[in-house]
């Protein structure tokens, strides 16, 4: 049995709540879900075990007011986060809730020495100067207090979807990628496998990291490895680039019959496109009995510089 790790996922604002709902519907286990919003309608839509509505007293508050109200609830947030080992925070930035509340939660988590991974969506350029200005101010505070920062520039969505496809479908792709990344880390820390990765390994890749990206590939049968490599080599939705990585975590999920050769081929292919020829590369395999017999392999890469 692995040591019990307390993992929380906090979704802040509309984007954060939508993502937490997606995680819950996707049945990602061994995680405690929390949502925070200044909009009561958004908060009521949350499926989280704990949903916190911060009443600012006005229908649409500004960033400064959201931040002030969040600080007034510091004791509540302190008690909520106490005992947490890893905290994932997901929010958009540019609005009052994400830009105002996220830095406050991170500041409290830092005082409690919680390892934090912030996943932040930057606004579209077309949202205007004021929104971008708020986003940049919030980002500076987030960078100061988080251990690891994963940035999703909304502008990149244009390059990854059919222009005629609904925007909702684009965000679903983002949700899937983030979900796979978080689930990969959660499974690494809570499931038994081969070449186990522990909490210190996670920290060695993600602590004080920049340009963090997540890539996911999966395949079944004879073409599994080829399909996985093809998926992993595609452009990603994050700010960073895989080829610039200096720290790489590779998590394989497979049946008990998975061959060392398949693992080796995928790992070598990933290593071949990395510019740094001596990166900090950590990998491990998690066994999933439901993959037995169908020769399925799932590969999740989390890399940073």
UniProtKB/TrEMBL annotation:
<dbReference type="GO" id="GO:0005525">
    <property type="term" value="F:GTP binding"/>
</dbReference>
<keyword id="KW-1133">Transmembrane helix</keyword>
<dbReference type="InterPro" id="IPR003008">
    <property type="entry name" value="Tubulin_FtsZ_GTPase"/>
</dbReference>
<dbReference type="InterPro" id="IPR024757">
    <property type="entry name" value="FtsZ_C"/>
</dbReference>
<dbReference type="InterPro" id="IPR008280">
    <property type="entry name" value="Tub_FtsZ_C"/>
</dbReference>
<keyword id="KW-0472">Membrane</keyword>
<protein>
    <submittedName>
        <fullName>Cell division protein FtsZ</fullName>
    </submittedName>
</protein>
<dbReference type="GO" id="GO:0003924">
    <property type="term" value="F:GTPase activity"/>
</dbReference>
<dbReference type="InterPro" id="IPR000158">
    <property type="entry name" value="Cell_div_FtsZ"/>
</dbReference>
<feature type="domain" description="Tubulin/FtsZ 2-layer sandwich">
    <location>
        <begin position="195"/>
        <end position="303"/>
    </location>
</feature>
<dbReference type="InterPro" id="IPR036525">
    <property type="entry name" value="Tubulin/FtsZ_GTPase_sf"/>
</dbReference>
<keyword id="KW-0547">Nucleotide-binding</keyword>
<keyword id="KW-0131">Cell cycle</keyword>
<dbReference type="GO" id="GO:0005737">
    <property type="term" value="C:cytoplasm"/>
</dbReference>
<feature type="transmembrane region" description="Helical">
    <location>
        <begin position="86"/>
        <end position="106"/>
    </location>
</feature>
<feature type="domain" description="Tubulin/FtsZ GTPase">
    <location>
        <begin position="6"/>
        <end position="193"/>
    </location>
</feature>
<keyword id="KW-0132">Cell division</keyword>
<keyword id="KW-0812">Transmembrane</keyword>
<dbReference type="GO" id="GO:0032153">
    <property type="term" value="C:cell division site"/>
</dbReference>
<dbReference type="Pfam" id="PF12327">
    <property type="entry name" value="FtsZ_C"/>
</dbReference>
<dbReference type="InterPro" id="IPR045061">
    <property type="entry name" value="FtsZ/CetZ"/>
</dbReference>
<comment type="similarity">
    <text>Belongs to the FtsZ family.</text>
</comment>
<dbReference type="GO" id="GO:0051301">
    <property type="term" value="P:cell division"/>
</dbReference>
<dbReference type="Pfam" id="PF00091">
    <property type="entry name" value="Tubulin"/>
</dbReference>
<keyword id="KW-0342">GTP-binding</keyword>
<dbReference type="InterPro" id="IPR018316">
    <property type="entry name" value="Tubulin/FtsZ_2-layer-sand-dom"/>
</dbReference>
């Amino acid at each position: 049995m692995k040591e019990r790790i307390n993992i929380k996922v906090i979704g802040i604002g509309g984007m954060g709540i939508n993502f937490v709902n997606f995680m819950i519907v996707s049945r990602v286990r061994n995680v405690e879900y929390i949502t925070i919003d200044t909009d009561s309608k958004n908060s009521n839509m949350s499926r989280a075990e704990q949903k916190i509505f911060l009443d600012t007293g006005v229908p649409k508050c500004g960033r400064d007011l959201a931040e002030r109200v969040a600080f007034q609830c510091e004791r509540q947030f302190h008690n909520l986060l106490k005992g947490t080992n890893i905290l994932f925070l997901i929010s958009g930035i540019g609005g009052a809730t994400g830009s105002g509340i996220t830095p406050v939660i991170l500041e409290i988590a830092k005082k409690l020495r919680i390892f934090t991974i912030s996943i932040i969506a930057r606004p579209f350029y077309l949202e205007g100067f004021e929104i971008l200005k708020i986003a940049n101010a919030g980002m500076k505070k987030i960078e100061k207090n988080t251990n690891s920062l994963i940035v999703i520039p909304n502008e990149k969505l244009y390059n990854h979807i059919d222009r005629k496809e609904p925007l909702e479908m684009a965000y679903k792709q983002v949700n899937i990628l983030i979900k796979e990344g978080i689930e990969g880390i959660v499974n690494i820390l809570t499931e038994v496998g081969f070449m186990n990765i522990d909490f210190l390994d996670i920290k060695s890749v993600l602590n004080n990291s920049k340009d963090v990206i997540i890539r996911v590939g999966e395949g079944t049968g004879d073409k599994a490895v080829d399909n996985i490599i093809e998926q992993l080599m595609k452009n990603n939705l994050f700010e960073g680039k895989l080829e610039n990585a200096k720290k790489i975590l590779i998590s394989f999920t497979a049946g008990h019959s998975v061959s060392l050769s398949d693992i080796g081929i995928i790992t070598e292919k990933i290593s071949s496109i990395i510019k740094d020829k001596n990166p900090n590369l950590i990998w491990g395999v998690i066994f999933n009995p439901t993959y037995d017999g169908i020769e399925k392999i799932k590969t999740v890469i989390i890399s940073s510089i």
